[in-house]
Design goal:
Largest sheet: 17 strands, parallel
Distance between the termini: 76 Å
Shape: globular
Helix content: under 10%
Length: about 300
Amino acid sequence: MKKINTLLSVLSMPIFLSSCTWIYGSIKRTEVGSSQKPAATCDSNSDGNNYGGGSGTVAEPFLICSVNHLNKIGLNSSDWSKAFLLTSDLDLGLLPANSFNMIGTSGTRFTGVFDGGSKTISNLSYSTTGQVLGLIAYAGAGAVVKDVSIKNFTLSTDTFAGSIVGHATGGLTATNLSAKDIDITCGSGCGGIIGYANGVTASGGGLTATVGNRISADTDFRSNFGGFIGQAVGTNSFSNVNVNDVELNSSYRTASNVGGLAGQLEGSTLNQISVTALGINSTSAAGGLVGSLGGTSSV
């Protein structure tokens, strides 16, 4: 009996694992000194300068879990070189029309990291003129945008527009960016995901639909409309991108460069691109994949 009691006493002790994580009953915790960190919790009620938590570094990004948090990013240009992580689905339909603060300007571009956390941002409505539109209106050198999902965006302008990025220069890394049921009307450089980019590396993502996607010209003499990107110049790479169920309507006079993936591409490498259920209404330079392919490009 003594031996049995001793054995039971040993088995009831905490069991230490090599990672310094220990389990006792149904409780799991991390010991001091462990390399593992407990998951940060986003405070949806926070209205402070650190959004819902975090410090803005890649290791500890600012946490975004409310519409207010997301809308504040566009007001804080000093944060546009920092890192953000979306931790909740967000409904921008809670905002009045035309009140969302786009991130970045032509003078101060977003150059940080925006990680969508595979959450969905939905129901943005914005109509204007003379303004680039996109969740991130202007992205600059070194910007990383990944795992962002958009649904039911309605955007209208007379210049560049994309549901996630409007205008990017200096090298944008875009990974797993997706949009569903979007309606975008704009001038030249209009894409379902990205409007215009000078140097972009895009992999994964694309367009899907329940009711369909529509990308349209706003008036005559427009060009560069694409299901994924309107116009890409410089050196670009697109891989594992899928575009499904989109209508590209560029039927105004002399409209040109309309394609399922892109309206115009230069210096681009394409790998494993899929375009299905595509409708094109254009007067010239239209293609199922690319409307106009220039520079040194390979498919």
